[in-house]
Amino acid sequence: MPGWISFMSDIDKKNSREEIRFSGLAVSPGIGTGKAFVHGAIAVEPETYQVGQEDIEAEIARMEVALADTRKQIEQLQDQVGRSSGNHREVGIFDAHLLMLEDRSVLDEVVGIVRGEMVNIESALYRVINNYISVLRASNDVYLRQRVIDFEDVMRRILRNLSLMRPADQRVRHEHILIAHELTPSDTAAMDRSLVMGFATEVGGSTAHTAIIARSLGLPAVVGLRGICDAIHTGDALLIDGYNGILIINPSAETLSEYDVLADEKSSAAKCLEEIRDSKPETSDGREITLSANIEFEHEVSIAKGNGAQGIGLYRTEFFYMHDGNMPSEEHQVENYSRVARGIAPDGVIIRTVDIGGDKLPDGLAEPEANPFLGWRGVRLTLARTEMFKTQIRAILRAGAAGDVSVMFPMLSTLDEVQTCRHLLEECAEELEREGVEHSRRIDIGAMIEVPSAALIADQIAAEVDFLSVGTNDLIQYTMAVDRVNDQVADLYQPLNPAVVRLLKMIVSAGHDQDIWVGVCGEMASDLLCVPLLVGLGFDEFSVSAPRVPAVKHALRSLSYEQCKAMASEVAACSGQEEILEHCRALAVQSYPGLLSR
Ligand code: PEP
Ligand code: MG
Q1: Contact at 8 Å (CB) between 341 and 402?
Q2: Which is nearest to 545 in space by CA: 193, 298, 191, 218?
Q3: Residue 273 CB partners (closer than 8 Å, separation 6+)
């Protein structure tokens, strides 16, 4: 191996025990510690495990088989490319890849690690090739830097071939902190909470569904940590601080004890809030507000109840829908919704029809799109798949026989959509009646207001439904033209921007003019700095993730409605988010200072 390469890898090793901090976007509170598992964008970093003396030769033999398979695949690719394009340059790239496979100095290094440290072949290979990659990346020579991609390509192939020889189940079986470039909401939903202590990703946003699920699961999470997939290795000791958006590699003893103190403070603050679990969420001057919980999974009903929620204000059914890639049958849905309705009784549940699309895409239901948040999503998709939609609506109506069930429709942008949803619901009710199937004859229908066009015609929509529920996560994203999943534009994701505030005010007036209640089920309802404004604007219901219910209840009980109302009319003249935030903060600090500092 060239001397300069080994020199650089020695420096790497020496630095490897130092505490290193990364700062990102805190999206789910909590503190977690554990070993890293890097689910990298480049290649999945394999686990390291010890092998016995007697298995060493078999490990090395596995590498030889994987290399032979890789060679065959590259030759086939080279052949295909050569035939279809006749491009000598592309064919030459594969020659370079084949040469890498022949480089005995690299392979000897890998074998040396397996023999010397008695570790698995994948781990040794990953380490050696990654060392070369780091050195190439740091090089001043453009040509060498460009070779990184070739190394990565070849490494990915070999690792894949090695993994095909291993038993199928490669999940990590010990407690760990998951590091990834990006995670989908279903990746997060499938996490084993007893093993995953938290996760950190390179991209993401605080109202992305991945983050929303993390909060529901009580899983510490930090996003927007660019470069962590390269900087962190599987097995590194990590601490994740989901309160402040910090990820620490090799936390020192001092850091760990500081975090012990913080964890104790947080848990005693949570205990204090338990005292108000059974009290009403009414303001200090007597305005009653309904405080319910958002859930994504059936098991959260008990968490919602345990936290003192007055019902479920939003059941996001898409996670249940997307569970195994198959659409659940009507019967299966009736059972699920009925259990939720019985579980939350005597309070009610608002079931939202599936909001597939955007960042929630199950295999086989819809094709990936260039601009998924502006595409086939929510009722746009379900109204085009009426059979699937009617199956869900029938199930919701049938579950109405088991408890207090309401329905609401997501991603509405026209009045016509609202009316079509209502007609479909009436059609389903008539069918059930004719079939003699037990169902609820009177179910409340709600419209989610989350698109500016719907907000602007909220008066017309309100005339068609029993309640309005504002999805601020989307309303903010569409009003500000800011992708809620993109941390690069997170600064422009402004819940208190005057444009958003004006729309919120219009929606509340539209609902109240029609004598129907108006709620907020987006994350803004659990933001303690936004709560005074939402109260002042006159929202009747707040629906927040189950773990946030106690804090929001405390905030509501500490605020004076009259003061909030006065503040809401004062901010109508403000020209920017900062100014409005200052008004909100002043009232929040005056009303619940302790809650803000926790
Ligand atoms: C919202 O948009 O605020 C909302 C509650 O729906 P979701 O987060 O599922 O898009
Ligand atoms: Mg939404």
Answers
A1: yes
A2: 218
A3: 550, 551, 553, 554
Asked if 203 and 336 sit in the same domain, the reply is no
**Three-state helix/strand/coil letters over 239-295:** EEECCCCEEEECCCHHHHHHHHHHHHHHHHHHHHHHCCCCCCCECCCCCECEEEEEE
Q: What percent of the chain has pLDDT over 90?
A: 61
Same domain, 131 and 220: no
Q: What is the CATH number of the domain that holds 242?
A: 3.50.30.10
402 within some domain: yes
Report which secondary-structure segment, H or E, holds 207. Answer: none
Q: Are residues 220 and 237 in the same domain?
A: yes
Q: Which of 312, 474, 493 to mutate for ligand 1's pocket (most ligand atoms within 8 Å of CB)?
A: 474
Ligand nearest to C-alpha 523: 1
Residue nearest (by alpha carbon) to ligand 1 atom 8: 473
The model's pTM: 0.77
CB 251 within 8 A of CB 19: yes
pLDDT of residue 12: 46
Atom of ligand 1 nearest to the CA of 410: 6
Q: Are 156 and 194 within one domain?
A: no
Pocket-testing residue among 373, 473, 482, ligand 1, by greatest number of atoms within 8 A of Cβ: 473
257 shares its domain with 150: no
Domain tally, the chain: 3
Cα–Cα distance, 312 to 598 (Å, whole number): 26
Polymer length of the chain: 598
The Cβ of residue 253 has, within 10 Å, a number of other Cβ atoms equal to 7
Res. 42 pLDDT band, cuts 50 70 90: very low
Residues 249 and 332 in one domain: no
Give the CATH number, domain containing residue 96: 1.10.274.10
Give the amino acid at 49. Answer: Y
Q: What 8-state DSSP symbol labels residue 34?
A: E
Centre of ligand 2 from the C-alpha of residue 208, in Å:
10
What average pLDDT score do residues 238-243 get?
Answer: 96
Q: Supply the DSSP string of 306-375, one letter for each residue.
A: HTT-SSEEEEETHHHHTTTSSPPPHHHHHHHHHHHHHHHTTS-EEEEPP--BTTB--TTTS---SSGGGS
Domain boundary among 144, 165, 186: 165
Q: Which domain holds residue 243?
A: 19-43+172-267
Ligand 1 binding pocket (C-beta < 6 A) is 314, 316, 355, 450, 471-474, 521-522
* Per-residue b or e along 505-514, where b marks 16 or more CB atoms closer than 10 Å to that residue's CB: bbbbbbbeeb
| 213 exposure class (CB count in 10 Å sphere: 0-12, 13-18, 19+) | buried
- pLDDT per residue over 341-387, tens digit each? 999 999 999 999 999 888 776 656 667 788 889 999 999 999 999 99
pLDDT in tens, 144-197: 776 777 777 788 778 877 766 554 344 567 899 999 888 887 778 778 888 999
Is residue 5 over pLDDT 80? no
Catalytic residue list: 209, 521
